[in-house]
Amino acid sequence: MTNMDWSLSLKDVSDKQLRIALSQTNVPALLASLSHLDGSSRQFRAGITPRVVQLAEEEDGLSEEERVTARALAFDRLQAYRNASCPDPEKLSDASVEEAMHFITGEKIPAEQMAMMSEELNLYGEDRRRLNIEAGSVPQEYRVLVIGSGMSGILAAVRLKEAGIPFDVVDKNPEIGGTWFLNTYPGCQVDSANHLYNYIFAPESQWPGHFSGQPELLDYFLRVVEEFGLRDDIQLETEVLSALWHEKTAEWEVCSRNSEGKKSTSRYDSIVSACGQLNLPAFPDIPGRDSFAGIAFHSARWNHGSDLSGKRVAVIGTGCSAVQFVPEIADKTAKLQVFQRSAPWLLPAEEYHLTMTEAELWCFRNIPFYARWYRFYLFRSRGVDGLLPFFFTQKNWNGHSHSVSADNAALRDALVESIREQAGGDEALAAALIPDYPPGGKRPVLDDGQWIDTLKKPHVTLQSQPILAIEAEGIRTEDGALHNFDVVIYATGFKADHFLQPIKMTGRDGRELHDTWKGNPQAYLGITVPGFPNFYCLYGPNTNIVTGSSIIFGSECEMRYIMGCLKFQFENGVKALEVREDRCRDYNVLIDTRSRECAWGSEHVDSWYKNAEGRVSQNWPGTHWEWWQQTRTPDPGDFHIV
Ligand code: NAP
User: Which terminal CB of the chain, N or C, has fewer other CB atoms within 10 Å?
Assistant: First the structure.
């Protein structure tokens, strides 16, 4: 197989090579893609019915025998297609597309969700999340400011450019990419399925992994910037300091500072914040933190100048970041101690570190529409809504105290079993690794065994003793022991609820955004804030989708909503749109009620999902469908219109 030439096209591959390629396909997506060869979805069902089985080794619910039969059938059909010199595939009728969509996960998709599903499938590259704005309707000299050039900022720039709306993007960093530029710790990788984690308008199937690394992710976003000609629209090393709303002229006066410290002021009609939720590293409030005599840094600002070889290293924190980099650095260190305050739930994901084979990548390039159907398969199985139903609380539930429903308890049992199995009879380790809160209470961590394997190494310790203080030589734990270290790495997460800080935003009647929020950020649909006209957030309060899907889906929906607001303004000669206070309040009452019905809203759990008041200010407590629906088109009735 290693000698095979995977640069060949389908027309030129041998039978043997085709068989090998097909042996590595996702069967439901493969069968759906075969529909295009005959213009019908029926022939290629191979008598099977896939169904999504969460957390199973093979999530398609098929037996190995069924897969073999399906692939043999696919081989015959693709062989004939190849022998006929690969004519252009048929365009499927809407009915056939729908049928294939139902087939792929073995569930009847509710009729009302079909529009969202076919938008996501994006079979012929229609990009239905794009909102067209009539050329000529944009007022002269209208200008939008986008703050941040990460995933959301690039998305905003693409949409504004497509619509012909003048804009600037500013970013305080020296390079584009946001989180994918800043987080460079060893082992940093995406933990959403990568074939879902890309823009609908820039689909990418040639990812090197199922969950690729930070360099590949950054490279993707930079390629999108080049492809859409955005580089010149982005001012780097420019930090927005303040924005002041002028009621009379309906404009924002924005003050920013460049890398040389020079301040400048510009005027914009609208502002889109694309600052993200996870950009300000959080250091723990541990006594003596500054007294440590060795090297100390935060995982999100990795110190690549410090060589960990032969060093005694402490890692504080056991969230997604630590679980990604600890296995990468362990073998270099002389001693590695991981300080765990609470254990994360580990969600089995076998393919977490698996690279794509050349044959798999070949299939995405060469089997007509296979890549599209594979993305759709992931959306159905991991996205809509994946594990979400397992995280909803059940009324009067009186099962295990670290569970919130029967489903949640069943999930807990499965995860506990997986931990015990991996701990391999080390009861103390297993006990330390089993979280004391329900699954979904905090952000779970994907796991393919590397984490526990690393913790079992002789020079690695999982330290569950609470930290008392940090001293010059190391870390003192509550039992009085002093643990000596050369390096302390803080994997202690982000100030997630500090949306837009430290920017001073002054809206209508002189109200300041952070004073208004008082540490409790709230927005209508996570996008607009009363008192702050023509101001929009991407990935704002309560927009975090938590179920293993792609946050890009959420941001794309939000950006369509924002474009809808701009379109409404332009078409109706509206100078300013400001969301009504009552709509925002009612919406957030609903959010809070629903958050309390989720595992992460439980009063016994604390995490970055909650703000200092204990209110869940980060997560969206509903389904993808609800999110899609509520952000599809703005309702003018929600706004004060100037
Ligand atoms: P995190 O999930 O907030 O984890 C922070 C860790 O530090 C927790 O284990 C926390 O313990 C611990 N901690 C905080 N203060 C402490 C203290 N004073 N003493 C001891 N321990 C303390 O941070 P993260 O791992 O950086 O991840 C944050 C989020 O970023 C993730 O949930 C995810 O959404 C995102 N992320 C994504 C990826 C990706 O794959 N794409 C990778 C990394 C991060 P407690 O749990 O007890 O508070």
Answer: N
